[in-house]
Amino acid sequence: MKIFYGVQGTGNGHITRARVMARELYAAGFDVTFQFTGRPADKYFDMEVFNGYQTREGLTFNTSKGQVSYLKTALQANPIRFVKDINTLDLSAFDLVISDFEPVTAWAARKQKKKVIGIGHQYAFNHNIPRKGSDPVADRVMKHFAPADIGVGLHWHHFGQAILPPIIETPEFPTIVQADKIVVYLPFEDPNLVMRLLCPFENFQFHVYAPDVITSKYPNIVFKPLSRDGFQKDLYDCSGIISNAGFELASESLQLGKKILAKPLHAQMEQISNAAALEQLGYGHTMFDLDTQIIEDWLHNPHAVRVTYPCVAEVLVQWLKDGMPDMDHAFVEKVWEQVEVLQIKR
Asked: Record's NCBIfam families (predicted)?
């Protein structure tokens, strides 16, 4: 079976999920072509697993100082290029089209009357899950950005809905954890502001990953360039993570038993809803602005949660091989029965 797989490349979460799916799809013998949109072609990194891939401009959201700007997003969009990308993407040679919230693939498939399977966290919002920060614009973006005929939604909990657990790596639980080591990933915030925010906490070591690396003035703060391998090594033995409220990184952190402090992007319904879900489930803490007092309280709170998820990528690949039967209650329940939740105190 030949599959065309489109991936939203604006953030790293979609790509992380696609890496896991790629390994399982290739191992199962599928012929997969990946397309990434949403960032310049030279800004992708650690992409070897995709065995060659193509890029297009696509659409991306403009962010500034921790907030999504829909006005700047609209002004900077290139609708002529977007339409051209849709019209020039020929999907006739493919048996199946998958979109991880990637709009060029989704709309090209619709134009060519190809069925689209949507796999990703955003498709969980088609169900009754925790939702906050919603408005008419956000609702329309979520619904029409990358439409799918079959949406396979992913979330940290099922909330009584026909959705699946996250697609993540399933590494061994770390045997050694450095209690004072904190990983920070706030790519949409001013790095100098982040540095000033963290510098008072001299008893903790902060490993800050950022698109633009600056020189730290403080011995307890080090800035590092974006790197999948480097980030994973630091995430593995840290005690906690401070990040935006993206879905994939929080999923990996839960799998490893790391405590989470999430700062959702303002005016970004998905991230605000993710923060609400983390609080509701008791899986993490949140702050809606960069707040020194909240960070201090969180740093000295030893509570964390480990959620062990099954290999959902393997489940989905088998589902594809079986002809994509309906994901009924029994199918979904069987997957969630494999999830284990453990409270941790360090």
From this structure: MJ1255
Helices (H), the chain: 12-27, 70-76, 79-88, 103-111, 136-144, 191-198, 228-237, 247-255, 269-281, 292-299, 312-321, 329-336
Phi, psi (5° rounding) for residue 142? -60, -40
Q: Which CATH number describes the domain made up of 2-167+311-339?
A: 3.40.50.2000
Are domains 2-167+311-339 and 181-308 of this chain identical in fold? Answer: yes
| Domain locations in the chain as residue ranges | 2-167+311-339, 181-308
Coil, helix or strand for 301? coil
User: How does 113-139 read in b/e, with b if 16+ C-beta sit within 10 Å?
Assistant: ebebbbbbbbbbbbbebbbebeeeebe
The CA-based diameter of the chain, rounded to the nearest angstrom, is 58
Spatial CA neighbour of 181 closest among 222, 210, 216, 227: 222
d(CA 301, CA 315): 36
What is the amino acid identity at position 135?
A: D
Kind of pairing, strands 340-345 and 303-308? antiparallel
Please, how many CA atoms are within 13 Å of residue 313, restricted to the half-sphere of its CB? Answer: 17
SS (H, E, C) 7-21: EECCCHHHHHHHHHH
- In the CATH hierarchy, which fold is given to the domain comprising 181-308? Rossmann fold (3.40.50)
pLDDT, tens digit, 9 for 90 and up, residues 235-286? 999 999 999 999 999 999 999 999 999 999 887 889 999 999 999 999 999 9
Cβ contacts of 203 within 8 Å, gap of 6 or more: 180, 220
